[in-house]
Amino acid sequence: MLRPQDGPTRERRRLDGLWRFRTDPTGEGRDAGWWRAPLAQSVEMPVPASYNDVLVDAAVRDHVGDVWYQTTVRVPRGWAGQRVVLRFDAATHRAVVWVGDEEVVRHEGGYTPFEADVTAHVRPGEEVRVTAVVDNRLTWESVPPGIVSDGPGGPRQDYFHDFFNYAGLHRPVWLYSTPAAHVSDVTVVTGLSGSTGTVDYRVEAEGADGLECRVVLSDATGEEVASGRGATGTLEVPDVHPWRPGEGHLHDLRVELVDGADVVDAYVLPVGIRTVEVRGTEFLINGEPFYFTGFGKHEDLPVRGKGHDDVHLVHDFALLDWIGANSFRTSHYPYAEEVLEYADRHGIVVIDETAAVGQNLGMIGGITGRSYPPTFSAEAIGDAGREVHAQAIRELVARDKNHPCVVLWSIANEPEAHTDSARAYFEPLFTLTRDLDPTRPVGYVNQILASADGDQLSQFADVLMVNRYYGWYTQTGDLAAAGPALLAELQAWARHGKPIIVTEYGADTVAGLHSALPQPWSEEYQVEFLDTYHRAFDQVDAVIGEHVWNFADFATKAGIIRVDGNKKGVFTRDRRPKAAASALRRRWRGPGPWRR
Ligand code: GCB
User: Which SUPFAM superfamilies match (predicted)?
Assistant: First the structure.
């Protein structure tokens, strides 16, 4: 799905700002038709933001179910005769949208965009009411999963991941125009052969019968380097300047639908020419071995929760640069497209993950002492849940397929992986991802119960991604025992003959807590913990990446193992470095044995 953009044939307007907002604790709004009138008893709520922490109200923070958002927008007069589209970059976790009195779109999944052609429901120059009901409930048929039950104070939401279930309109909302005949999708696949770059392109258009498709590729200076005609083709770029880690060199692919000399529609797609390949235990970008340094992150900030914010976007990337990180994982859901575009422009490498987290009821039951049905079964995540997961993969690939920064798909975080039912659930999802995108490696992120011998999913993965917490959840405080246990396990995984990225390792650390003898929770312990891991990584050639958990402290649900959130951040929630930050900076910016 193409991002809205301004151009000679298109315009966009952001609907961000203060919207009318109301929770719907009894779920009456859908029957009562709250979209038909100005939202009664509403308060003002900023968009984009999670609604949870904005108001100081437990009933809003812990609300389970529907909330209503509404705004009024004037459609620009100049859009007469154009097609008008309403797009939500995200509504977490599902939404129904009305324009005036008419339902225009509904969408499942909290982290991918959706849109509706609303031309028939608006009149250029006039105002129109836009209403969205957003439902934050997690069930066996959502990704991620959860359980809603009745509690004394109303519905209760349980879920199987630690980060707080922030909800609302987290990302921009757009009204945009295109001509009736318009470019509806573009797919590019890039290649390198010696000093020549190639761009295979495929353009989809609607209402464009009789129009010709023309494409022009230009370099960063705006100079044309290749051009083509027709909806599909291959462009060749001699002496190409590729996109590479640390240098986000982009070309612009300008796609035009033309009628003789008239340009009916034009769309410009940034293109990074690069290749990705797994060979043996190496991960190659442009044919050169790449070693991932960086973090698993979260979209998480004080007050705004998961609300996208350009200030923090730039600041987080500045910190990644400062510390020497060349990559991150979008744990545990697709991030705002602004993040990927920024990574494209700055040469930061991304592992792009779906929102499938918490699909491991055996592990959760072990931690909580509660009993659950088998994870992948008709009583828990069954066929309907898998179809939602499949759709989440389709939408992720459709949205992110053209980003050069994305080099690897992660289709789940720490699912159950040692059972036949897990294999039966995941095999088709791996196949689906490869069918959708044959050009990028695919993997999933495993956890400690998935041993190198017992795991049934790694056979389908191109890259092994492992999360390990020796010295924290096991061998707590005992790094002398943790190091050898980690090394032995990595050596066992290395026998699979695939590249290994350690996608999580970390220790909760209270900023400012010091201890001469490195004790868990102290800054010294976090430094020693990471050091212990790095010594092990440097002994296993198949380890081709290290992502510390986590970039920054983040909010979690209430629980007895978290004090004011998850404290495994190398930065605090307000982005102040802990001692580990300087230690990582020395490793990642230094010559490092990992640069092999
Ligand atoms: C994990 C999860 C991550 C948690 C982390 C922790 O394995 O993937 O979501 O936050 O452990 O700190 O427990």
Answer: (Trans)glycosidases, beta-Galactosidase/glucuronidase domain, Galactose-binding domain-like
